[in-house]
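Morning!

This is the sequence you dropped in the shared folder:
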Amino acid sequence: MLVLFGVVVVVFFLFNILPGDPARMMLGQRADSASVAAINKDLGRDQPLPVQFLSYLNDLLPLSVHNGRDRSSIWYLDREKYGSALTLLKAGPATVVLKAPYLRRSYQSKRHVSDILAEGFINTIILALVAMTFAIVVGIAIGIVCALYRNSLADRLALVFSVLGMSLPSFFVAILNAWIFAFVLAGFTGLNMTGSLYGVDDFGRGTYLDLKNLILPAFTLGLRPLAIIVELTRNSLLEVLTQDYIRTARAKGLGRPRIILHHALKNAMNPVVTAISGWLASLLAGAVFVEFVFDWKGIGVVIVNALDKYDFPVVMGAVLFISVILIVINFLVDILYGLLDPRIRVQ
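The structure's back. Tokens below.
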């Protein structure tokens, strides 16, 4: 919670000291002083910055305090904005309510930021989960082979691939993959250079599920975590295979597959789980460059479009949303550590 509060503080003050007047952006050429003042008042930007911050924090908190009578107040309980808010307590004009966090509205589309992020998040989580599944399955399998056949040709090739995978920038790999597989080899692969999960039917019959558009962005997004998982699995497994209990298992006559799968691999997974958690959080947060190159309609494209239009509420909401994902995943990983290795459980 302290980390999340720190993120809220940094995000709010960072985006509120940036140049640009949202009212003038919203009005465009029609901007006049009276209209600008009216919009700034509606947005609460006519108040001192500390008051604006407290109001923003009040909007984010599930348990918040509002003015239930004065419609002109920045603290007014607007049911249209907050949706289904459950009233818990009334004391004069003050009303304490339980509600969903309110991320405010987009400056450009006037839609709720939470609705915009929800649409992008569905596509991003599908892309991230497919990419991470590919990286985990293939990466652990290659890492086991490299550990079992150390210093072989396959091991050396895998290490070269790992270095390249960790070194090449995502946007470069995305452009390269799009050019090779969807342009040069398009006749063989049948893949598109751009496209999202749903395509628009040429005959006006609405949208349809186009899973082939998922292949290239998921493959591109999964390459870097794949390279790291291969390296970590190999090194961790090599270290575990030197332990005394592995030698004991061999002396008892257990076969290699059983030793690897039932004894060594489980104890070698802690660093791999750490890497997986970090990358999964990063991918869920929105692979901005990959989504932008392939025009995948996820949170990454939402962030880029919002930055391009100075739509600060959308960017602020996206950053906070990403932060919550990171915190939740790190918390779940701490629990998973205890399940994988009972020695680190807190008694």
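Headline: The mean pLDDT is 82.

More detail when I'm at my desk.
O.
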